[in-house]
Design a protein that fits this description.
Layout: H1 9-14, E1 19-20, E2 40-44, H2 50-58, E3 63-68, H3 71-85, E4 93-97, E5 113-119, H4 138-145, E6 148-158, H5 161-173, E7 176-182, H6 185-188, H7 197-204, E8 210-216
Parallel strand pairs: 1-4, 2-3, 2-5, 3-4, 5-6
Antiparallel strand pairs: 6-8, 7-8
The protein binds S-adenosylmethionine.
The site of S-adenosylmethionine has 19 residues, from strand 3 and helix 7.
Length: 233
């Protein structure tokens, strides 16, 4: 569902000290956006940051980059950070907008990302030709490898069974090992779990939340073909 235009979002983001409007200029320099050097995590498709804002406040010793394609949504995210942080400075978060399909233009090896969060991305289930747009597709994961450090992890949550099943395969194809997996996150006892806006929405409908942690391993030479055009899977 497309969000209604929020006229206040752009000016509020422009005045926000932790919003970056030209992300291509920060390529290789994201770590310098933060008050202090710390582990660096990235959330892809952050939405309104309902969960992220609580997670980042609880973890002031970690720096986070929250990415979304929509400035309207990031405007709402900014307000959520302000509300959750209260009088605390929001100095361990950077917000930015870009299309994750082209993430190589915005992040590179020098950014040394230690963890990625992907929560409730579009499953693109309708047409096989669209599978490549999934944020967990092998082609995407191979791009993420360019800026992840060895042993980095991807935390992936979804409501969608076909996407989850396909993603487990994508992770393997792209040289990631699944180190944790559950088909019912809320019953699993996994902690800490910060419940996002979409997670609450699906959970309220009785849909079980699928979750895994994939750890980047050294790449086997024969799996790199996945970066090329091939059959839609
Ligand atoms: C279903 S929402 C999930 C939001 C949040 N992660 C949650 O769990 O509530 C997906 C988000 O991903 C963003 N998004 C989708 N495709 C994207 C892309 N190619 N690049 C950047 N953001 C994208 C959308 O704008 C939207 O905010």
């Amino acid at each position: 569902m497309r969000m209604r235009v929020k006229k206040w979002a752009k000016p509020e983001l422009a005045a926000c000290p932790y919003y970056v409007d030209l992300p291509e200029e920060k390529r290789g320099k994201w770590r310098s956006c933060f008050a202090k050097e710390a582990p660096f995590y990235v959330e892809l498709g952050c939405g309104k940051c309902v969960a992220t804002s609580r997670m980042t406040l609880d973890n002031r010793d970690i720096n986070y980059l929250a990415v979304d394609i929509s400035r309207n949504i990031l405007g709402v995210a900014r307000r959520n950070f302000e509300a959750v942080y209260g009088d605390e400075p929001v100095d361990n978060v950077t917000l930015t907008h870009f299309d994750i399909m082209w993430i190589d233009k915005y992040l590179c090896e020098a950014d040394k990302v230690e963890r990625i969060y992907i929560s409730f991305c579009n499953p693109w289930n309708q047409r096989p030709a669209h599978y490549k747009r999934r944020l967990t597709h092998t082609r995407q994961l191979l791009q993420y490898r360019h800026f992840l450090v060895p042993g980095a992890q991807i935390y992936f949550k979804t409501d969608d069974d076909p996407l989850f099943k396909a993603s487990l395969r994508y992770f393997e194809e792209a040289g990631f090992r699944i180190i944790y997996q559950t088909e019912d996150l809320h019953a699993s006892g996994f902690t800490p779990n910060y419940v996002s806006e979409h997670e609450q929405f699906f959970s309220d409908q009785g849909i079980k939340i699928k979750f895994c942690i994939a750890q980047m391993e050294e790449m086997k030479p024969d799996t790199t073909n996945a970066e090329n055009e091939g059959p839609e899977t």
